[in-house]
Design a protein that fits this description.
This protein is mainly alpha-helical. The protein is built from 18 helices and six strands. It folds into three domains: about 70 residues, no CATH class; about 120 residues, Orthogonal Bundle (DNA polymerase, domain 1), CATH 1.10.150; about 160 residues, Intergrase catalytic core (hpI Integrase, Chain A). The strands form two sheets. The protein has a three-stranded antiparallel β-sheet with strand order 1-2-3. A three-stranded antiparallel β-sheet has the order 4-5-6. Helix 4 packs antiparallel against helix 5, helix 4 packs across helix 7 and helix 6 runs antiparallel to helix 7. The radius of gyration is 26 Å and the shape is globular. It starts with 11 loop residues before the first strand and ends in a 6-residue tail after the last helix.
C-alpha cells in the first residue's frame, strides 16, 4: 500500500542557509531560513498544493511562488521591468482572477478556465505574450477541432482565450493591439470546419421527467420539482438556502445573494408557489445558511434504503462501516455537474433518453410562453432582454408557421 501524501510537507533548513520544501520529488528553495519571505513563500506553496488535491499543477513554478508571496508581503510586482512577459504570465494572472471570481473549487467555469490556461501553457507558454497573434490562436483552435470538440464548444473555448488576453490588457501585461488582433479571428461557421455539430437544447418531455424521478432519491426528486416549477438555473437550485427565501408574505420569494447577473447589479426574485413550495416544505426547517439539498443526505438515504432491503441479519461489526476520514466525502451541496450526473444515472435505470437539468428550464419557459406570452416567460426566467428568452421558448419554425397563416392571398 502506497504511503499517503503529507497534507503539509515540512519546511527544512538547508546547508545553504535557505528554507527548502520537497514536493513531488522537487525541491523548492524559499529564501533565507525563517525570514518573512521564506514563510510567505511556504504559505503560498502549501495553499496551492492543498487546493490541487496534494499535488502542484504544471503551471506553478518558483517564479509564480515568489510573485504571490510578494503580494502577501505588500511588495510591488517587478515583472514588467525585470523580465519579458510570456503567455505563461498572462495565464497565471487569469487563473488568479478566476479563482477570486469563482470561489467554489469545483465550479465548472473555474475548471474550464484552468483547462484552457493549461492548453496555452503547454503549447505557447514560453512565447512572448505580444507575439501570440491570430495564427497562434487559430492553431490552438485547430487542436480542439482535432480533439473532437463540437463547433460551438470550440468557438466558446476560443472566445475564452480572447477574454484571457483582454484581462491581460487590464493588468498591463500586453498591449491593447495584441487583444485587438485576436478579436479579428472569425468564429467557425457551419460547413467551414470538420468539427461536429450539436443539436440545439430542447425542452424535455414531462413524461420522461416523471419516469426518471422514480429512480431519484427524495432530495434529488425535490430539486427536479423545484426547477420544473420555477425555471431556475441548475446552479440556483443547488445553492438554495433557507436564508435566501423570503417567507414574510403570502408568497414565498427566493432572492439569491449570488446569481449569474449579480455582478451587473441585477436583482433576482423567484416566486415559490404550488409544486415548488410543496417540494421545499421538508427541506426548509434547518440552519438558515445551510443548503436545502445536500449530497450527504442523499448518501444517508441510500444507505438506509440498502439496509432496509437487506434480507439477512446485520452483524454487530457491520452496523457502522463508514470510514472516519474518507478520501471522497460527500459535499455540503450539489453543483450543476453532480446534479446532471445523478439525473444521467436515473435515466439509465429508467431506460429513457438522457436529459440535463437545463432542459427543465427550457420546459418551464416554453410552457409559460405558450400559456401567457413572452413577457411572462422573460420575468420567470429572469432575462434582461427578450431576445434571450426566445432561446428558451418556441422555435423559429413555429413562428414561421404562424406568420405564413397571415400572409396575403391572391
Amino acid at each position: 500500500m502506497a504511503r499517503p501524501k503529507a497534507k503539509a510537507p515540512e519546511r527544512r533548513y538547508h546547508i545553504s542557509g535557505q528554507s527548502v520544501v520537497t514536493i513531488d520529488r522537487k525541491d523548492f528553495y524559499l529564501g533565507k531560513h525563517d525570514s518573512p519571505e521564506s514563510i510567505a513563500r511556504y504559505a503560498v506553496l502549501i495553499a496551492v498544493y492543498q487546493q490541487n488535491e496534494f499535488s502542484l499543477p504544471n503551471w506553478f513554478d518558483q517564479e509564480e511562488m515568489k510573485r504571490r508571496a510578494s503580494l502577501i508581503l505588500g511588495e510591488p510586482p517587478q515583472h514588467q521591468e525585470n523580465e519579458p512577459i510570456t503567455v505563461q504570465h498572462v495565464t497565471a494572472a487569469y487563473r488568479e482572477w478566476a479563482r477570486f471570481r469563482h470561489t467554489r473549487k469545483h465550479d465548472p467555469e473555474l475548471i474550464r478556465a484552468n483547462q484552457v490556461c493549461g492548453e496555452l501553457d503547454k503549447h505557447a507558454g514560453s512565447l512572448l505574450a505580444d507575439k501570440f497573434g491570430p495564427l497562434a490562436l487559430q492553431a490552438q483552435r485547430q487542436r480542439w477541432v482535432q480533439a473532437g470538440l463540437s463547433r460551438r464548444y470550440v468557438n466558446r473555448q476560443t472566445n475564452l482565450v480572447v477574454r484571457i488576453f483582454k484581462h491581460a490588457v487590464a493588468q498591463e501585461l500586453v498591449t491593447p493591439e495584441t487583444w485587438q488582433r485576436l478579436k479579428s479571428v472569425e468564429p467557425l461557421r457551419i460547413g467551414t470546419t470538420t468539427a461536429p455539430e450539436t443539436e440545439p437544447r430542447k425542452p424535455v418531455d414531462l413524461e420522461v421527467v416523471r419516469a426518471t424521478a422514480k429512480h431519484l432519491s427524495p432530495i434529488l426528486r425535490a430539486m427536479v420539482r423545484v426547477q420544473a416549477a420555477t425555471g431556475m438555473r441548475p446552479s440556483e437550485v443547488c445553492n438554495l438556502r433557507p436564508i435566501d427565501i423570503d417567507r414574510s408574505g403570502e408568497t414565498w420569494m427566493f432572492r439569491p445573494a449570488k446569481h449569474k447577473t449579480a455582478n451587473k447589479g441585477k436583482r433576482k426574485a423567484v416566486p415559490l408557489v404550488g409544486d415548488a413550495r410543496e417540494a421545499l416544505e421538508d427541506y426548509i426547517n434547518r440552519h438558515p445558511e445551510s443548503f436545502c439539498f445536500s449530497p450527504k443526505e442523499t448518501v444517508a438515504w441510500m444507505s438506509a434504503q440498502r439496509r432496509s432491503e437487506r434480507k439477512t441479519k446485520v452483524q454487530p461489526s457491520q452496523k457502522n462501516r463508514a470510514k472516519k476520514n474518507p478520501k471522497r466525502a460527500p459535499r455540503d451541496c450539489y453543483d450543476s455537474v453532480s446534479f446532471n450526473q445523478a439525473i444521467r444515472r436515473a435515466c439509465y435505470k429508467a431506460k429513457v433518453p438522457h436529459w440535463c437539468p437545463y432542459q427543465l428550464r427550457h420546459l418551464a419557459g416554453t410552457v409559460v410562453r405558450d400559456a401567457l406570452g413572452i413577457e411572462h416567460a422573460q420575468a420567470l426566467l429572469g432575462h434582461a432582454q427578450v431576445a434571450m428568452t426566445e432561446h428558451y421558448t418556441r422555435s423559429a419554425e413555429q413562428k414561421a408557421i404562424e406568420a405564413a397563416q397571415h400572409t396575403p392571398r391572391l
